[in-house]
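Tutorial handout. Part one gives the primary structure; part two gives the three-dimensional structure as tokens.
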Amino acid sequence: MSELDSMPLTEHLRELRTRIIRSFGGILLATLVCYYFSDKIFEVLREPIRKYLPTGGLVFTAPVDKFMAFLKVSFFAGLIASCPWWLFQIWQFVAPGLYAKEKKYGLIFISSGTVLFMIGVCFAYFLAVPAAFEFLMTFGGDADKPMITIDHYLSFLTTFLVMFGMAFELPLVIVILGMMGIVSQEFLRSKRRYIIVILSIVSAIVTPPDVISMTIMLVPLYLLFEISVLIVGRFERQPEGSA
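Part two.
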């Protein structure tokens, strides 16, 4: 029997609140540290759009816009930098629902989750975002000139990067569900066509409205799903005491 079976609902909710508070505490601390480097981080984030802007820079329409942009950049960087911490909090919340033999995978969960999140962010920054901008910024010819505000650009870019980072956590989520006995390798294989449809819908919602961006997200998600199907057979829940 796992610890989860003997915990009342109020205890679950209390534990969830604790983990959320600690996660945001870690993100806040990382945000404060990243604010010191916010100008350099902002330059990196501005690079994908730079060549499409007439003056090479973004515009702001209110005195406070640039300051708020630096805060947003700091929070975004803090979210990424604190990835191992909030993944640890997620593991601490999930762990009571696992058998003792399954809890030893905590370090693997945190390290692989961090790597997958970083790969997703980098994949978006170096491949998906440039492809999306190449389509969106050149669509309809060059008669019109872009005037993009800092706020709109950062909202678009950071959402895009975080969504890709989260999407690349798919194998981790599936493996955890397998360890908890919620899904199995057989179930995933039998529902493959429906899962592909769901992944397509998610890709269409998250990415800009063009086929290229959607495909760039859908293909790695599908490959990650197939990898997950192979891995989950090794980790899916077995009756306690079995090999």
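Part three, for discussion. The CA atoms of residues 35 and 74 lie 5 Å apart. The two ends are 16 Å apart (CA to CA).
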